[in-house]
Amino acid sequence: MGVPLPAATAYKRCVGTRSPLRRFPAAATVGAALLVGGCGGTQAKPRSAQPATLHVRQEWDGGGLYVEGAYSYLRVERNGSSVLQVRLSDMKIPRAAIHLDPGSYRLVSFQRPCDGNCGTLDSPTDQCSRAVQVEADAVLEAVVRLSPGEGCTIEEESPID
After folding, report:
1. CB atoms within 10 A of CB 107
2. Fewer beta carbons within 10 Å, N or C terminal of the chain?
3. Per residue in 93-117, pLDDT tens?
4. CA 154, 112, 5 angle in degrees (round to 5)?
5. Do 52 and 139 meet the contact criterion of CB atoms below 8 Å apart?
6. 134-153: pLDDT as tens digits
7. Which domains does the chain have, with CATH numbers?
């Protein structure tokens, strides 16, 4: 697996709101100047460890297929809270590459089948999870083995240099 993968983007739904500062740009400028002027000279501490890279791919492991298609997702949790969620690529073998800080995580894979078309998705199904330990600067490989309608498993594999 010597081909580098593009980094996955976090799955977010953007909800737009109108800021009152757009209507009064002078107020925004004055407010920003006051905030900057009142800031101390402290800077964020540099991180001592580099993030790890997790490569995830999903393989069909038999069973049926989603008749109208589906999107594949991976959610990364830490201490029971979601850290990020990505939708795997739409390639023949869905995949993603994500960066994680060192620590303990739970990977959660699930599918969102299309309902009539992929403009409307069904609730998550065929979910599975696995705990992983992430070390600094590591390259991790995880394979989601999916059997639609029967569930999935997540396996860790040794990266190939």
Report:
1. 22
2. C
3. 999 999 999 999 999 999 999 998 8
4. 55
5. yes
6. 999 999 999 999 999 999 99
7. 52-157 (2.60.40.10)
pTM given for the model: 0.68
Neighbours of 11 (CB within 10 A): 13
Of residues 147, 156, 157, the one with CA closest to residue 59: 147
User: H-type helices in the chain, by residue range?
Assistant: 25-37
Q: What is the CA radius of gyration of the chain?
A: 21
Two structure tokens written together for 118: 């992929």
DSSP assignment string, 67-118: TT-EEEEEEEEETTEEEEEEEPPSSSS-EEEEEE-SEEEEEEEEEEEEESEE
- Count of CA atoms in the C-beta half-sphere (13 A) of 156: 12
Rounded CA-CA distance 96/58 in Å is 9
Q: Which residue carries 């599975």 as its tokens?
A: 128
8 A C-beta contact, residue 141 and residue 97: no
DSSP helix/strand/coil, 71: strand
Number of other residues whose CB lies within 10 A of the CB of residue 86 = 19
